[in-house]
Structure formats: C-alpha cells, structure tokens
C-alpha cells in the first residue's frame, strides 16, 4: 500500500526530432539526480520516440546487488546480442587522419546513443559469460 510506482518509473517523450540531439544531456542530468532515501533506491526512466527505438535508463544504488548480479538483472531486460549488434570497440589514434572524412565516415550509421547502448549491452553479455 505504501509503494508508489511513479516514484520509481518516469517517461520522457522525445518524439520531436528537435529533441534527439538533447539525449546525452538528458541522460547526464538524470544520472546526476540523487535517489530519494524515502523510497527504495532505484529508478527507471523510459525515453520514448527516438529514431532507433526507446531507451531505458536504469539508476540503481550499488546496495541493490553486486556488480555481476546487477549486470545479469539488467541483461535480462535486453535482447540477446547478435553479430550485427556487437560492439566494434574503440577506435585507436592510428585510424585517425586529418583532412576530408573517409568514405566510411560518410556512410549513414546508427545514432551515437544507439551505438553506445549496443556497446554497453555487448560488454555486459561478455562480462556475464566470464562468470
């Protein structure tokens, strides 16, 4: 009876294309908010209307679970990683050059937030495989 779902789950509509570039700032702002000690120490923010799909931002206090257990909980919320969604890893300085962008750089690609989410999902899956 004392549980209030609205204290733990919020939504943000970013269906207006003008707001898509604001995603990183919104994520940073939400991650910077303290969790209220008046409620259990977790909060999910569902960001809807982005071109590649919705984004779920999870804020959980480390007392909820150790790192591996928490990674498994979060992985259970995602789709399995396939070869197309696997992270390519960071780009080293040897691949950088001055001048005009390469042909590869001019090709359309997923938005940065989507690539970052795929990389994080891939890293979590790899970490879970090690355990």
TrEMBL record:
Q: Which InterPro entries match?
A: O-acyltransferase_WSD1_N (IPR004255)
User: Where are the annotated segments for Disordered?
Assistant: 82-111
What Gene Ontology molecular-function terms does this entry list?
A: diacylglycerol O-acyltransferase activity
Q: Which domain of life is it from?
A: Bacteria
The Gene Ontology biological process terms listed for this entry are: glycerolipid biosynthetic process
Q: Which Pfam families match?
A: WS_DGAT_cat
Does this entry carry the keyword Transferase?
Answer: yes
Q: What is this protein called?
A: Wax ester/triacylglycerol synthase family O-acyltransferase
- Report the source organism: Myxococcus llanfairpwllgwyngyllgogerychwyrndrobwllllantysiliogogogochensis
Organismal lineage: Bacteria, Pseudomonadati, Myxococcota, Myxococcia, Myxococcales
